[in-house]
Specification:
about 160 residues; seven-stranded mixed beta sheet; 6 helices
Length: about 160
């Protein structure tokens, strides 16, 4: 069965909540696996047929731990996952576009196929206290994450991608 691999990084809980919502929905459609970026290895990437990457935007870029996942896994899987579908979710305090562009460039290098525009959840955290605080993602935003996970899972099962 086709497996969706959801790789995420979260320091204050926002991205984790988003990834978990997508995971539950993807699992309901087929096979899904949820891994923290620090735990995901090249063999996990190779074993999956589709990907959902979820990370916070830090200083207008992907979080360091998510970037480290890509650094660690990039070359060991290069040329072996071309054409596989992917989507991304970004948890941001402002616009999230910098992180989304960075992730898309990495996915382009792997020659993955984007099947959904980036889903960006904006927390509007702008002060030091707000940025460092634990995040609570609202039900409507989590529903969007669930819909993305379900669509990716169902698309893989049906052979749409």
């Amino acid at each position: 069965m086709a497996q969706v691999l959801i790789v995420y990084h979260s320091r204050t809980g926002g991205s984790r909540q988003m990834a978990e919502a997508a995971f539950v929905a993807a699992q309901a459609e087929g096979e899904a696996r949820l891994l923290r970026a620090e735990e995901a290895m090249p063999e996990d990437v190779l074993a999956a047929q589709g990907y959902l990457f979820c990370a916070p935007e830090n200083l207008a870029a992907l979080s360091g731990a998510m970037k480290e996942f890509f650094d660690r896994c990039y070359y060991p899987v290069l040329g072996q996952i071309e054409g596989r579908p992917y989507a991304q979710m970004i948890c941001a305090g402002s616009d999230g576009e910098g992180a989304a562009r960075q992730l898309a460039r990495i996915a382009t290098g792997w020659r993955l196929k984007e099947v959904q525009a980036p889903l960006i959840v904006c927390t509007h955290a702008q002060t030091q206290e707000e940025i460092l605080a634990e995040k609570v993602i609202g039900a409507a935003e989590l529903e969007r994450c669930s819909e993305l996970g379900a669509a990716l899972g169902a698309g893989l099962v049906m052979g749409v991608f």
